[in-house]
Amino acid sequence: MKVAVFSARRYDRAMLSESNATHGHELTFQEARLGPETAALAAGFPAVCVFVNDAVDAPVLEALARGGTRLVCTRSTGFNQIDLRAAGRLGIRVARVADYSPYSVAEFAVGLLLSLNRHIHRAHNRTRDGNFELDGLMGFDLHGRTAGVIGTGKIGRVFARIMAGFGCRMLGHDPFPSPEFEALGGRYVPLEELARESDVVSLHCPLAEGTRHVVGAGFLAAAKPGLLLVNTSRGGLLDTQAAIEALKSRRLGGLAMDVYENEASLFFEDRSSEIIPDDLIQRLVSFPNVLLTGHQAFFTREAMGTICATTLESITAFERGEALANEVTAR
Ligand code: NAD
C-alpha cells in the first residue's frame, strides 16, 4: 500500500524501512508536518502515517479524503491531534499504537524526577566548568515521601512500581481504578487531596476534553508547597501560565516537562540559531528549577521498534480488509 509518512526524521525512516521488509509497503517520507499547507502531499496515498504534532483536524481530514486517503495511523499512543468525529464522518479509519514499551516513558519520568530533585543536570554543567561547589544542589530523599500519580494506566502503573521501589507512599487519581496500583500500596483519592498530600506528582493520563489543564491554578494553589511536578504525558494537561506563577511564588518547587502545550511549532527541530518567539517557553527555561526535554520519553530502541512494527501491521491489516486491532473511533 502507498503510505505517506509525515514528520519523518532520520530515525523514523531507518526503523520504518527496516520493519517494512516484512510488509512491502511503498513508503514515501515527508519531513514536513501534516497540516493545511502540506495535506496535498498525501494526494493519491490511501494510507497516511503521522506523529504527535501533526495537525489532523477536520479541514486537513477533508483534504486527505479528497485525495483518496482512507487510513490514518499515528505512531503514538495518544491521538488527541486527530479529530476522530471528522474522520468517522469522512470514512477515514484511524489507528494508533496502543501498546508499546510503557517502561520507556515511565523510566524517563523517573529520570526527570531524579534530575530535578537532585539537580543532576545543573551539577553536570558546573563540573564541566570546573565548579565543584554544592550550594544550591540539595535535594530530598524520595524514600518515605508521597508520590501522586494522575492516570494509573499502563505507564502510570510502571511509574508507580518504580516509586514503590524507592519506598514512596502512593496516591492515585483515575476514573478507572487499577487493582495493580492498589496492590502496590497505592490509594485512590480526589485530585485536590492528591495535590495537598503529594511531594511529587507525575502526569500519565491522556489529553482529552476533560483533562485539559487538569493541573491548573486550582491544583497548584492546593498543592503542598515545594511540590515537584513531572509531565511526560501531554503538554495540554498543564496550564503553563499557572505553572509559571506557581514557580514564581515558590509553591511549585520544581517542574520537569517532556511535553509542552505549544510544542507543535517548536519541537523535533534544531532551533538553536533562531529567535524563539514563544515567551512562555523562554520564561520556563529561565527558571533554575525547570527541566525541559523535547518529547523524547518514548525514544528507546524497544519502543521505536514496536511503534514501527505496530504501525505497519495496522496498514497491512487494513489492506487485507482484516480487523484493525489498534483502531480508535469517536465515542
Ligand atoms: P493508558 O490508556 O494505559 O492510561 C491512561 C490512564 O489515564 C487510564 O487509566 C485512564 O483511565 C486515565 N485517565 C483518563 N482520564 C483521566 C482523568 N481525568 N484523570 C486521571 N486519569 C485519567 O495510557 P498510557 O499508555 O499509560 O499512556 C498515557 C499517556 O502518556 C498517553 O495518553 C500519552 O498522552 C502519553 N505518552 C507520552 C509519551 C511521550 O513520549 N512523552 C509517550 C507515550 C505516551
TrEMBL record:
<dbReference type="InterPro" id="IPR029752">
    <property type="entry name" value="D-isomer_DH_CS1"/>
</dbReference>
<feature type="domain" description="D-isomer specific 2-hydroxyacid dehydrogenase NAD-binding">
    <location>
        <begin position="110"/>
        <end position="297"/>
    </location>
</feature>
<dbReference type="InterPro" id="IPR036291">
    <property type="entry name" value="NAD(P)-bd_dom_sf"/>
</dbReference>
<dbReference type="InterPro" id="IPR029753">
    <property type="entry name" value="D-isomer_DH_CS"/>
</dbReference>
<keyword id="KW-0560">Oxidoreductase</keyword>
<dbReference type="Pfam" id="PF02826">
    <property type="entry name" value="2-Hacid_dh_C"/>
</dbReference>
<keyword id="KW-0520">NAD</keyword>
<dbReference type="Pfam" id="PF00389">
    <property type="entry name" value="2-Hacid_dh"/>
</dbReference>
<dbReference type="InterPro" id="IPR006139">
    <property type="entry name" value="D-isomer_2_OHA_DH_cat_dom"/>
</dbReference>
<protein>
    <submittedName>
        <fullName>2-hydroxyacid dehydrogenase</fullName>
    </submittedName>
</protein>
<comment type="similarity">
    <text>Belongs to the D-isomer specific 2-hydroxyacid dehydrogenase family.</text>
</comment>
<feature type="domain" description="D-isomer specific 2-hydroxyacid dehydrogenase catalytic">
    <location>
        <begin position="3"/>
        <end position="328"/>
    </location>
</feature>
<dbReference type="InterPro" id="IPR006140">
    <property type="entry name" value="D-isomer_DH_NAD-bd"/>
</dbReference>
<dbReference type="InterPro" id="IPR058205">
    <property type="entry name" value="D-LDH-like"/>
</dbReference>
